[in-house]
Amino acid sequence: DSAVNYENEEAVGEAVRRSRIPRAELLITSKLRGRHHGFDEAIATVEESVYRFGLEYIALYLIHWPNPGRDRYVEAWAGLVEARRRGLVRSIGVSNFLPEHIDRLVRETGVTPAVSQIEMHPYFPQDEQRIHDAGRGIVTEAWSPMGRGPELLEEPVITAVAERVGRTAAQVILRWQTQLGAVPLPKSANPSRQRENLAVFDFELSSRDLADIATL
């Protein structure tokens, strides 16, 4: 998960080239910054991202946020549609968009985002946004899936569920998002925690577990 604003496209591209993982198995994402929301600017920014990555294409490109003060996100979206047509990217989507922003994109361009990336965790479950996305066939991705600090991992409701299912608090949170149909994007530089974060597909939370987490 990269972005022009993160200044990490070159490093991610180098990591892809050094890895032994087939390119088709890696889903690389980047994002268009808010001040590049013109049609031509959006295409040029995607071209620059492809160059910085040093890859033939980018799997997923998102508008980083709607920047409603400028109100040019529809132009930017049209630029991403064109970038996809040219083969620079495979899929396009949005980040930090509200339902009304997405509805306007679809209404004015006829193209529905593949992905909607939003902040989502048990303190901020984004029920309305998830239901809206699902209704349009849009995949919801969750950034900061474990919250913005350590509080959620120490939350008594979460630790009680974790004890009940024999998993860590982090695994419970990621499983909660997965069962809701979202794709969580956890971040860790620790290999053991990376493995822990991936080990969430061999258990399920019960309706009681989900109801308890919903109280947060």
Structure overview:
The chain has 216 residues and is α/β, with parallel strands linked by helices. The protein is built from nine helices and six strands, in the order αβαβαβαβαβααβαα. It has a six-stranded parallel sheet with strand order 1-2-3-4-5-6. Helix 4 links the parallel strand 3 and strand 4. Helix 2 crosses helix 3, helix 3 crosses helix 4 and helix 6 crosses helix 7. The longest helix is centred in the first third of the chain and has 15 residues. The protein starts with 8 loop residues before the first helix and ends with a helix. The model has no long low-confidence stretch (mean pLDDT 96).
Supply the key terms.
single chain; about 220 residues; alpha/beta; six-stranded parallel β-sheet; 9 helices; globular
What is the fold's blueprint, element by element?
Blueprint: H1 9-18, E1 29-32, H2 39-53, E2 58-63, H3 73-85, E3 89-95, H4 99-109, E4 115-119, H5 127-135, E5 139-143, H6 156-165, H7 169-179, E6 183-184, H8 191-198, H9 207-214
Parallel strand pairs: 1-2, 2-3, 3-4, 4-5, 5-6
Q: What does this entry show, briefly?
A:
The protein is of the alpha/beta class and 216 residues long. 44% of the residues lie in helices and 13% in strands. Strands 1-2-3-4-5-6 form a 6-stranded parallel β-sheet.
N- to C-terminal distance: 27 Å
Number of helices: 9
Supply the helix-strand structural class: alpha/beta
Q: What is the average per-residue confidence, as pLDDT, rounded to a whole number?
A: 96
- Shape annotation: globular
Strand content: 5-15%
Low-confidence sequence ranges: none
Query: How many beta-strand segments?
Result: 6
**Computed CA radius of gyration, to the nearest angstrom:** 18 Å
- N-to-C SSE string, H for helix and E for strand: HEHEHEHEHEHHEHH
Biggest pleated-sheet summary? 6 strands, parallel
Widest sheet, order of strands: 1-2-3-4-5-6
- Level of helix content? 40-55%
